[in-house]
């Protein structure tokens, strides 16, 4: 494993780790996650390092990466493009997105970032009444909490409105050792909210959403996940003409490295 840093278009330093040699697979984490909190990514990379160059970067504002205001989703497209340029020589690569990292991957491909194929694990989408939609003012409320010096309130809003955690469980989470780390990156929760757009509104996906994505897409969900995530994965797969839906046995809103790595190996190794 090696570590490096690339400079994004706006001058922000983006830190990453890389394993192995071969065709690149770039991993994008979902909301609140980064390299220090997702050891699964390193384990997946080690399982694939015999045939691929697996790269996992800290999204801006998290971990060892920098952050530059003001935020726009386009800055994260540029971050991903910088990583691809460094580790893939600028040629299209396989991109794997966990959860809302899948939205970022799709949005980046739509914007023209060089992507050869996409793997999306349970992108959070709400197109029906399977669960309450995100509040229309979700991003604004997140930004306001952080601006007022109340990052914990932003984390609570994410946990309840986005994750669906019952409010009575918040006390235990606030008292856990993970809470300070969540507060430290609370401002980035709104970044994911902006990448989600209106895909958790409870309405069907817009016809023009991701209409420029013409590369192969594999949409995954576990067979033990929350019903709304399974429904969302089906909606995304049905929305994209180049997509295939695959159910991962025994998994929920995460997947064991030894289960996920063979799926990535098979899809990333396909021609075309």
From TrEMBL:
Pfam families: Abhydrolase_6. Keywords: Hydrolase. Gene3D superfamilies: alpha/beta hydrolase. GO terms for molecular function: hydrolase activity. InterPro entries: AB_hydrolase, AB_hydrolase_1, AB_hydrolase_fold. It comes from the Bacteria. Residues 42-261 form the AB hydrolase-1 domain. The keyword Transmembrane does not apply. Signal peptide: none annotated. This is Alpha/beta hydrolase. It comes from Nocardiopsis changdeensis.
